Amino acid sequence: MTNETANSVFRGVFPYLPSPVDSGGRVREGELAALVDHLVAKGVHGLTPLGSTGEFAYLDDGQKAAVIRCVVSAAAGRVPVVAGVAATTVRAAVEQTRRAVDAGADGILAVLEAYFPVNEAGVEEYFTAVAEAAGALPVVLYTNPTFQRSDLSIDSIVRLSKVGNIRYLKDASANTGRLLSIMNRAEGLGIFSASAHIPVSVMLLGGLGWMAGPACVAPAASVRLYDLARAGDWPAAVALQKRLWKLNEIFARYSLASCIKAALTMQGFAMGEPLRPQQPLGEDARKHIKTVLEELEDIL
Amino acid sequence: MTNETANSVFRGVFPYLPSPVDSGGRVREGELAALVDHLVAKGVHGLTPLGSTGEFAYLDDGQKAAVIRCVVSAAAGRVPVVAGVAATTVRAAVEQTRRAVDAGADGILAVLEAYFPVNEAGVEEYFTAVAEAAGALPVVLYTNPTFQRSDLSIDSIVRLSKVGNIRYLKDASANTGRLLSIMNRAEGLGIFSASAHIPVSVMLLGGLGWMAGPACVAPAASVRLYDLARAGDWPAAVALQKRLWKLNEIFARYSLASCIKAALTMQGFAMGEPLRPQQPLGEDARKHIKTVLEELEDIL
Amino acid sequence: MTNETANSVFRGVFPYLPSPVDSGGRVREGELAALVDHLVAKGVHGLTPLGSTGEFAYLDDGQKAAVIRCVVSAAAGRVPVVAGVAATTVRAAVEQTRRAVDAGADGILAVLEAYFPVNEAGVEEYFTAVAEAAGALPVVLYTNPTFQRSDLSIDSIVRLSKVGNIRYLKDASANTGRLLSIMNRAEGLGIFSASAHIPVSVMLLGGLGWMAGPACVAPAASVRLYDLARAGDWPAAVALQKRLWKLNEIFARYSLASCIKAALTMQGFAMGEPLRPQQPLGEDARKHIKTVLEELEDIL
Amino acid sequence: MTNETANSVFRGVFPYLPSPVDSGGRVREGELAALVDHLVAKGVHGLTPLGSTGEFAYLDDGQKAAVIRCVVSAAAGRVPVVAGVAATTVRAAVEQTRRAVDAGADGILAVLEAYFPVNEAGVEEYFTAVAEAAGALPVVLYTNPTFQRSDLSIDSIVRLSKVGNIRYLKDASANTGRLLSIMNRAEGLGIFSASAHIPVSVMLLGGLGWMAGPACVAPAASVRLYDLARAGDWPAAVALQKRLWKLNEIFARYSLASCIKAALTMQGFAMGEPLRPQQPLGEDARKHIKTVLEELEDIL
After folding, report:
1. How many CA atoms lie within 13 A of D18 on its CB side?
2. For range C233-240, the mean pLDDT
3. Cβ proximity of B179 and B197 under 8 Å
4. Catalytic annotation present for A126
5. Given A42, A64, A170, A261, which residue is catalytic?
6. Using an 8 Å Cβ cutoff, are C278 and C259 in contact?
7. Contact D177 A200 (CB under 8 A)
8. Is residue A153 less than 8 Å (CB to CB) from chain B?
9. Residue of B194 and A98 predicted with greater confidence
10. Residues of chain B contacting C232 with CB distance shorter than 8 Å
């Protein structure tokens, strides 16, 4: 339950974990732990519970805490666990952060939810408060302009990158040029790709890796892609990326959480369905996912 | 604490109440009760805690319950209290509804929050579950396409209007034509205007009244506008509406909760500031609001 | 071909005329003149060729000039003709305006098309140049935020309303509150409703009438609605408005030009199809329009 | 004036040329020819007049024809000239295409402008008609979701890629993942990057080059970047790309045409100002551009 120092530097493939919850609202800890074991065995470099894919927006505080505790316990220090924190208020975000620290997380992935628009001062106040509450743990800024009602300006990111433990950024826009602008201006900030970016492109530009749902379904291939990129074998990396991109396409087409839960269930990890009123995928979508998994069978 | 039957028919001016919360996170019950007393004395026909203006998206379950209890107690059965319920999951919405019923609310204003898009089946499942949990209480559907990530299609509204206790709709788009289409198709549904619509226009078309933040600041003038419209004195109603519209303009210009809290504080009701990281209004905005309040002094 | 002074004050129902063009690109002048005659006979107060419904964005300069000449000639001074001018450059707009003046138009409906965003100074430069080129003719500002890439800020509208012959505004947002704000701030400007607004609401607030495609299909009922509103018989006006609104609903649902051409063809005015690559309406859409026309038969 | 067969295969750096026009509306042919000479001398692989940067949306047919003739004449067969064609109607697009063929263009860059939304059938009809009118010349599909009101679906692109002479695509979204999806599905289609994408990323994925405004300002560095990418020297390519990206950033920040004209004027090519009512850049913007040009002086 200590915050491992060996696990305080993040790099590589960090699957965004789904949150399996039964119809009574209880986290299916056994299933989640089995998935964690599988992913670590396949060589992933870290784990990220409570990202978008992890349905953070649909879980209450108790469910969130249970997810983090389960993942930390199953990871058992083998890889770092970077827990999602997401709230509309500073107060709730700080409380979530403290609970994540107490539960043994190795880092915080910080998201700002908003209902009314927030100006830059408010945005920076929020992330700074999370960083302070995280104490010694590194913080990953997470910005997702598609689903959140606020976005981090590059100016704000540059200022926030000067807060001691704000060390990483995960950007979930589809705009890779924005990442390059951030890299140029916030030099100390480590950049992770999200599933809307092409990981091999972000690696080429100097990214550290990716945090994304599809890596749950293709952990070994993702690690291989990472290794090829790290080795500078770009032609082989691109060839693999082109095939893997089909996974990102289906994740973009179907609701993220529904899709990852369905795909993992097909792989033998019974993740259940997304939380209501989100709807389970229909038959056509399941067939489509199944077809893609079969097409990629040799690399999965 | 019973759900008054005299209060089960809604019509007229329902101010959207702000939620005053101190820096320690406690609801300022004395201030809120004083505001309720003032509004009832001015003749408003109902009260709506936990709408958008009430910062529902920024409060935890305990704060929400405290707000409802305080308003129900201060209203003391003199006017109906329609409590906001807003969640991303069916499960949380049902729990909030039950707590509102237990706290003595006379109706439920139901909002669907979303992170991922939800299809029509999911949307209808959500509102139907809230209606069922509301038992005997009437439910007001509330749709705000600006801030929520889902919208109610007119087809869904027509279907939901057939659920026994779904009896009203408050639409917060600025599209009055949409209201007319809904009136034409969902005949049994009572329509309330929001602050983005022009109340006198909605009344002309057959609306029942309005639920909106500005009515907190101008309760007497709002009631007078309602009475003129009910009496069919449209020229006088329009003349008053044109002046009152300035209030809606400032509420549209500045963040709703910040603006209503600042205006009420100027009127002697210490509502404090919006919850962080929302930012208090700057000096220019306060001066602008003050000027408008002064311009309208004779009717406020 | 003189610009009639009796026709320099605009008020009432101005149908937005479609532009019938045959497959060789020639304006079907006979059909257009027959429509003009019909509308004038039904009592409309003016005619507006080359609005959105008139497919201005799909016609070349020669076609535009032919449409204006045809409408002016058919109207024969009985009602004013307000011709649309739309361009991306000041230069082209000025040339179009001069041609419209030469063709005998009684007023100019001015639209700014944009590809790159334009700032307020550019927007005002454009409309001021059109007004100057219009000489003695009154100008109607036309703003359609759905289809144009620029919008007129209320500040710009207030400043432009001080240009001598900029005397009217037609706003095609669906936001009636915006119209009320404009009326409050730009007192000398006469306001016309577009099909996205509810005419009776705009009349109640002090509007002068409406310029819209559906009035082509329902000229007599539109004139009756106008007369009821002018007489202050609001209950009767609303009752008629509720029925007529079905026409606006189908115009909003199907592409404007396709829909108006199809409906008029059903009424015996062979308007042809929208210009390619716009597609003709499918069978289901035609049936839907036919059904609505039948439902309204008693008032059309 | 013949359509050179050696120039019918496109690959490499194709600067998007600005369209210098004097206040009387005449194309400044001398200045444009001087720019063409300069770019060819620096090694660019082709030239693209009448793209977005070339203000196609602001020029009349005569100006467009003059621009193409001037560029074809100045290029003198040394590199291919791919002329932009953009219209709202099939009819106008076909006429423009014929004029471009007659003027000696080596290829067509085809853009669909829209006012009302167009469905897929309409979109495909338009591009197919342009391709037919282009005869033997290759066609580049150009899609710019930011400024155009229609977008090409991937399904439409796949179908259009089967038209014989539709051989290339230039996508101006910022979504590089979309390019990868297109590459995976439309195998025969050659892909060019636009300025919103990162050229080195698109080259890594198998792109053929880029067509973009910034290449006018940095032709030699762009050619060097292309050569490094072609040679597979990715680390050197990325290092150069990171510096060059500053140019793309300023082009994204300031209106494209204004920015390119200002930057080229600083470099000694008097391109004048964007067409009115577009506004010239202010002093701060010019200083910003000047600073970036100075920072990159060693590679420009």
Report:
1. 30
2. 98
3. yes
4. no
5. A170
6. no
7. no
8. no
9. A98
10. 234-235
With 0-12 CB in 10 A as exposed, 13-18 as middle and 19+ as buried, what is C235? exposed
Q: Using a CB–CB cutoff of 8 Å, tell me whether A236 touches chain D.
A: no
Locate the chain B residue with the closest alpha carbon to C235. Answer: B204
The neighbours of chain B, by the rule of 3 or more Cβ pairs under 8 Å, are: A, C
Record the pTM: 0.95
Q: Quick check: ipTM above 0.90?
A: yes
Contact A176 D201 (CB under 8 A): yes
Q: Other CB atoms closer than 10 Å to residue B201's CB: what's the count?
A: 26
Report the amino acid identity of residue C153: S
Structure tokens at A267: 């792989």
- The fraction of chain A above a pLDDT of 90, given in percent, is 85
Nearest to C201 among B183, B201, B249 (CB): B201
Neighbours of D236 (CB within 10 A): 14
Task: For residue A198, give the chain D residue with the closest CA.
Answer: D177
Partner-chain residue, chosen from A113, A116, A122, that has the shortest CB–CB distance to B256: A116
Token reading at D282: 């202010």
| pLDDT tens, position by position, A178-217 | 999 999 999 899 999 988 789 999 999 999 999 999 999 9
Taking CA–CA distances from A229, the nearest residue in chain D reads D234
Contact D204/A232, CB-based, under 8 Å?
no
Q: What is the pLDDT of residue C4?
A: 46
Q: Which residues contact C185 (CB under 8 A, 6 or more apart)?
A: C154, C157, C158
Question: Using CA atoms, how far apart are residues D41 and B255, in angstroms rounded to an integer?
Answer: 56
DSSP 3-state assignment of B4? Answer: coil
Cα separation, A269 vs A275, whole angstroms = 17
DSSP per residue over C138-175, as a string? -EEEEE-TTTSS----HHHHHHHTTSTTEEEEEE-SSB
Q: Is B196 on the interface with C (CB under 8 A)?
A: yes
Tokens of A280: 């389970």
> Given an 8 Å threshold on Cβ–Cβ distance, is B177 in contact with C242?
no
Interhelix angle C234-253/C219-230, rounded to 10 degrees, is: 140
Which one of A177, A204, A248 has the shortest CB-CB distance to D238?
A: A204
User: In which element (H, E) is residue B239 found?
Assistant: helix B234-253
Residue range C133-170, pLDDT digits in tens: 999 999 999 987 665 566 789 999 999 999 999 999 99
Q: Which of C243, C289, C284, C220 is nearest to C13 (CA)?
A: C220
Task: Give me the mean pLDDT over the D74-96 stretch.
Answer: 98
